[in-house]
Specification:
The chain has 379 residues and is an alpha+beta fold. The protein is built from 10 helices and 20 strands. The protein has 2 domains: 237 residues, P-loop containing nucleotide triphosphate hydrolases (Rossmann fold), CATH 3.40.50; 120 residues, no CATH class. The chain is 25% helix and 33% strand. The strands form 4 sheets. A 6-stranded mixed sheet has the order 6-7-8-3-9-10, with helices on both faces. Strands 13-12-11-14-20 form a 5-stranded antiparallel sheet. The structure holds adenosine-5'-triphosphate. Adenosine-5'-triphosphate binds next to strand 2 and helix 1. The site of adenosine-5'-triphosphate has 12 residues, from strand 2 and helix 1. InterPro entries: AAA+_ATPase, ABC_transporter-like_ATP-bd, ABC_transporter-like_CS, ABC_transpr_MalK/UgpC-like, Mo/tungstate-bd_C_term_dom, NA-bd_OB-fold, P-loop_NTPase. It holds the Pfam family ABC_tran. One of its GO terms (molecular function) is ATP hydrolysis activity.
């Protein structure tokens, strides 16, 4: 097991053709601590710097500025073998001239592990990943999903202090994806090592990880548990990127006071959300400015739960999403979506809905920062 610390880590890819292309800032001043034994997911859209971060930790990519520490030691100048970090790639990186069995056993062989022990460990990992039947096959004869599981097995069999997984499920079909995801979680619980898992799939990140680090445009946006990201997103990007179905967001909203109560009002007054008294400070600071208002579909419903406040909308559109329903109402041309039980009757005209005023989120209209959080970006 090992703690991994990134201190002000920066990566610039220098353009080789200086006249034609510009340098690429792939990772900007990244400060992040992955605790010993933690399962951390690096989540973000394509090109935000996730893989580059992983490759710098493994030692496959140089660091432009900053320091990476593994178990308290600065490893910037260490080669990958010295770091005891294993990585499973999205693009397999298997030896094509070796069978699956040989690919899996290779690193144990290099460590002079006895052949019987290699056989035992290979069989064990193959059983976990359901690849026992292809142990004697070469990678070129395997499907993408099978190659991906072999790549995963090869990283896990080393029992490294840190295991890095770069989109390890991307080529698996839905059923196998779920099954392998559960296996990865089980393996982590069994080996209790530090796992860093790169994905652009928020459901995968939230399902697997103890904490999720959200990146965008080379920058860390927030690190937190699923509850923190869901209920206290650091900014509009995190609020919008994390959460399914997506959050209702209203740019150009205003804050108002009426009869002693505070309200956040969407454009054209389509929806007036009452705010809890604790938000009074925000009203004082932002009364004359526009804000971005957010509320998750999970915090609005058809039932008046204790503390919920009524609101009405018209002309609802109902979608059946399996376990629950997804209802969209509109008012003054603005949609508002909420979760409902799966078996409600479809509504067409005026409808009463209820929301939790504690869960109304307000963001600065320019910086996008959550106005209720007094936090630092880098944790
Ligand atoms: N070897 C390289 N040379 C130049 N630019 C690169 C190189 N590798 C990555 N980049 C650029 O650095 C940025 C970050 O890329 P990176 O692969 O780390 O992102 P990512 O979040 O992992 O994306 P994806 O999910 O698509 O893999 C991108 O703009 C990418 O084009």
């Amino acid at each position: 097991m090992a703690e991994v610390v990134l201190r002000n880590v920066k990566k610039i890819y220098q353009s080789r053709q200086k006249k034609k292309k510009e340098d690429v800032l792939a990772v900007k001043n990244l400060n992040l601590t992955i605790q010993d034994g933690e399962f951390l997911a690096l989540l973000g859209p394509s090109g935000c710097g996730k893989t580059t971060t992983l490759r710098m930790i493994v030692g496959l990519e140089s660091i432009t500025e900053g320091e990476i520490l593994i178990d308290g030691k600065v490893v910037n100048s260490w080669n990958p073998a010295q770091r005891n970090v294993a990585m499973a790639f999205e693009t397999y990186a298997l030896y094509t001239h070796l069978t699956v069995r040989e690919n899996l056993g290779l690193c144990l062989k290099a460590k002079n592990v006895q052949p019987q022990e290699i056989e035992k460990q290979v069989n064990h990992i193959a059983e976990i990943l359901k690849i026992t039947d292809i142990l004697n096959v070469r990678p070129s004869h395997l499907s993408g999903g099978q190659q991906q599981r072999v790549s995963l097995g090869r990283a896990l069999i080393r029992r490294p202090s840190v295991t890095m997984l770069d989109e390890p499920l991307s080529h698996l079909d839905a059923a196998l994806r779920l099954e392998t995801r559960i296996e990865i979680k089980r393996i982590h619980q069994r080996v209790k090592g530090t796992f860093i898992y790169v994905t652009h799939d928020q459901l995968e990140a939230l399902a697997l990880a103890d904490r999720v680090a959200v990146m965008n445009f080379a920058e860390l946006q927030q690190v937190g548990t699923r509850k923190e990201l869901f209920e206290q997103p650091a900014n509009v990007f995190v609020a919008d990127f994390v959460g399914e179905p997506p959050i209702n967001l209203y740019y150009q909203s205003t804050l108002e006071e009426q009869d002693g109560e505070l309200y956040a009002v969407t454009p054209q007054g389509a929806y007036r959300f009452q705010l809890v008294p604790q938000k009074r400070r925000l009203l004082e600071n932002h009364q004359k400015e526009k804000v971005t208002l957010g509320i998750r579909p999970q915090h609005i419903g058809l039932e008046q739960k204790p503390g919920y406040v009524p609101l009405s909308g018209k002309g609802a559109l109902f979608e059946f999403l399996g376990e629950y329903g997804y209802l969209t109402v509109h008012n003054q041309g603005l949609d508002l979506s909420l979760l409902t039980p799966a078996d409600i009757e479809s509504h067409s005209e005026q409808i009463d809905i209820f929301y939790d005023p504690h869960k109304v989120l307000l963001f600065d209209s320019e910086s996008g920062e959550n106005l209720a959080l007094n936090r630092t970006k880098n944790i």
